[in-house]
Amino acid sequence: MKKQMGRSWAALMTLFLKSKSKKTLSKTGVKNIVLVDGVRTPFLQSGTTYADLMPHDLARTALQGLLNRTGIPKDAVDYIIYGTVIQEVKTSNVAREAALGAGFSDRIPAHTVTMACISSNQAMTTAVGMIAAGQCDAVVAGGVEFMSDVPIRHSRKMRKTMLSLNKAKTLGARLALLGSIRPAHLAPELPAVAEFSTEETMGHSADRLAAAFGVSRREQDEYALRSHSLAKRAQDEGLLSDVVGFKVPGKDIVSKDNGIRPSSMEQMAKLKPAFVKPHGTVTAANSSYLTDGASAVLIMSEEKALALGYKPKAYLRDFVYVSQDPKDQLLLGPSYATPKVLERSGLKLADIDVFEFHEAFAGQILSNLKAMDSDWFAKTYMGRTSKVGSPPLDKFNLWGGSLSLGHPFGATGCRLVTTVAHRLKKEGGQYGLVAACAAGGQGHAMVIEAYPQ
Amino acid sequence: MVTRAVAALSRFTIRARCILFAGPSSRHISVASSIMARSHVNCEIKGDVAVIRISDPNSKVNTLSLQMQKEMTEVMDEVWGNSAIKCVVMISSKPGCFIAGADINMIQACKSTEEVTRLSQEGQKIFEKIEKSPKPIVAAINGSCLGGGLEFAIACQYRVATKSKTTVLGTPEVMLGLLPGAGGTQRLPKMIGLPNAFDMMLTGRNIRADKAKKMGLVHQLVDTLGPGLKSPEERTIEYLEEVAIDCARGIVNKKLALTKEMNMMQKIQDHVMSYSFVQNRIYSTVEKKVLKQTKGLYPAPMKIIECVKAGMEQGPDAGYLAESQNFGKLAMTPESKALVGLYHGQVACKKNRFGVPEKEVKTLAILGAGLIGAGIAQVTVEKSINTILKDITEEALNQGQHQVYKGLNDKTKKKSITSFERDSILSNLTGQLDYSGFEKADMVIEAVFEDLAIKHKVLKEVEAVIPPNCVFASNTAALAIKDIAAASKRPEKVVGMHYFSPVDKMQLLEIITTDKTSKDTTASAVALGLKQGKVVIVVGDGPGFYTTRCLAPMLAEAVRVLQEGVDPKKLDSLTTGFGFPVGAATLADKLGIDVAAHMAENLGKAFGSRFGGGNLELLKTMVAKGFKGRKSGKGFYVYQSGLKDINPELKEIVESYNMMPTPAVSSDSDVQYRLISRFVNEAVLCLQEGILTNPVEGDIGAVFGLGFPPFLGGPFRFVDNFGADKLVEKMKTFEEVFGNQFTPCQLLLDHAKDPSRKFHRLIH
Lengths: 453, 764
Known about the structure:
A: alpha+beta; ten-stranded mixed β-sheet; 15 helices; 16% strand; B: alpha/beta; six-stranded mixed β-sheet; 31 helices; 20 strands; EC 2.3.1.16 (chain A); acetylation (chain A)
């Protein structure tokens, strides 16, 4: 009770001072957990320089990059967690394969998580949970996605025949099975970026979402152009310092993201809609593209980090996961997660200095901004009394986003968190907010606090 | 192509609400000043596009009423006269309905063929002007677009439809014994080809948006939208309008082609179809099929073919004339009037006249996972009601659960639901062998074996575990509910719910109340039935209630006919020839010979010699030999790999019960009237005795539960149309030969005496 009064007193004071509603999000009895550092491989359009690699190669590179950047002893890490979406069946626990190859001690356990586009967010929050619970002190979390090679399967019929073939004992039985193969058996099964529950592709859902919120094609193109322009500027100014170079075997050293391509409104207007034809608004230019890449962050308890002599970059504070209707609200995760995480932290939208939202589609971002700015939506669908408000664009994704930098599904979360930490430092802010949507109608948000300089 | 004709004729859907192009749903005529706000049609000019929005303020659905027509004509004249307007979008501002047609009462108000023909011609004229509009008109369709509404839409130059599940296009006129009378028979064949046009017009079935696109009925589809800054329904209509406006401008700017480019296959098909001998071949095939299915009892399908033929062979003038004249003729036929009567009856039986129950059924428990029990489970889980399916053996339970799965999986195969929806629906079902969870049940329906002792046993077991407000419903075809309720501690909570097999296909639910059944219990049972999508009749308690009681004397007569040496095939053709969708012998096989024997014995005991006729021993002998009907593979027929043939061993049995026919009452027609009059007399007796509350439910029960010929409109409509006096006269002839089985009941005699007495209000 006393504590609460103290807190509200502090809140009142801050109002007078016209500053943050809170000085810090540190809670007594809760461990401070910090981001020591974060790195990523350059994000490349799939089918380009990384084309001949395997997913664990990318993840291994990110892990090695993190080792080099932080100089952490290879056995000082207690646990490794990776997020990924489309799994290479040979390396289904890609965390372990990558860790072994990256030279980490083989005594460090590793597991892989999956939660669509917020997989690496899940890897990070799992790490936070382990540290908070006192089970670990230092955890590496990361994410990887490799879209240049995805598992394309034989048809179910063909698989069934082939599996039976293994069991067939006589030559006759084998020949009979082989003889049963029909042309239809040979049609392969391609993975699709589609919801299993609704069978709708994500782009189609994004187009419907944009239409539902009345987001025009022009607005989407403008937003996409903004993302590419900001990314280009950030790249040119060397702000994307989380990128570590990668000597791809047999190819050149890659040191830059290769999907940033600021175009012109005229050029973009020429594109035909990619999903809803002929009147849709989502095009290849205002959507994120298939990307290869990996990321990694080092998370520690504050004491451990300080004990090891690190100067942490940021505190990882409250986080939430949300989920909603996978059909009509597939990509609205940020709208649901943002007010919830702010409430949890006792912050207001105005307290946030740095916003990093995952940009799946320009139409999705703009729809979320509109949803967050609508009292009607907040009341009708979120059961809230009023809107949370729309993040001001001058604080929003200022170094580009998934639309321009690329979006390796499993790796984006760590990029968002690291970018917030870097931007807080660069821009002198105190609080940052990460939010992302994910397939399955899920969403995530996390509040990040700058580490005192 | 017309295989579904009869099924469609006997199976009305609530969507077949309104079908014409004119209706009197609104009588107030607007004042002279045309500037006065219009109530039904609103026109907003957006630059060079006129957006015409339709909404009938007095109804949930839009109908092409007189007022609507008048305002539409005014608005269109303004649009055509305004040179700033280059194109038009026609849209409804009602969610779930573009135009559902018009009120059928309109046609019933007409007194002559000529009057109806004139209505048709007026509609044809309006739509011709729409079709020839120099400014392209885009119909933006969301929700039902039926009958006159569809004819309106296909007169427009371009159609955009939403993918909403409520968006259906169709020409349901045939189900009311009519035809599309505002140019539909002329435009449809040209638009979607003869085979598809016949399919639509002869079956009356609803076409979903995706199918409509494939058929060429609509040009473009628009997705439905989820939540945004407005409600999904509202925003979807706005979005549809935005897309339609783009289309309209696209047509003006020649960026959008009105005719789709055809692929090679379609070109070849079109070429082939253009030969008159190919067309003739189609006509004759369709005619043959229609005749086979309707036995010539339904005039509308043949008239539809005639109109299409006239238009294709002699040109549009002849086609339109044939259409309007045949429309007028059909409207005056007793068949159409009977079908319209059924439609009204069906609407009435989709309402709960017992009010809203105190407690909604959220958890239903079903005892017995047999055909019926599992069927009830399926139609219940589909409505997201928690359903417990209980049986006593794992084998029976397994079979029941599989039946539910299969029923839903078939829908997945037909793509009416996704596999995900199937799984999520199935999650409402719990299969079990014990009574756990019954403490949460709001209603229990027992569908165990038809044996009073067993019913009493489960009733007592159930009452020990259910909460006090839980309703106990018994699914029985013949046992009196009061006898079952005798074992209950709370007879006011006991009610009968007689489902028909297969439950997921048969529309009828017969609810039986005893003197002690409380009103709230009845309201609860009706509410559940309606939720399950049933057409519900509520009848009084008594042996065989209403439906079984009507069927039994007819089947007894059928047995006598067999004993007189008529073979099952002949018996079937006599009954189907009268208009029953299933012949009497086939029906008995379907029902189960053992069930029929059981039923006949029970009712015979209750009603005495009136239920006699055929010798019950014949059925019993069949059962003893294992000929239990379809389910056992042998009955009157032998069922083998989809084929059926007369059971060769039947002859011997029948011969041992041989009866000499009396030539005076054994002509084909006599046999038909012997069968039908016993059915009808028993139905009238049910009304006389108060088992039935009204003739409407009697007609609905007979048609939807027992397949009484739909074009006759049910036993009561039949008496009205045929004449009670004529029927009584026939029955008296039969009575002389056979005795009291043909004694007309008092109510029938009363009607015979006074020709002005009718069961249904007279329609002109």
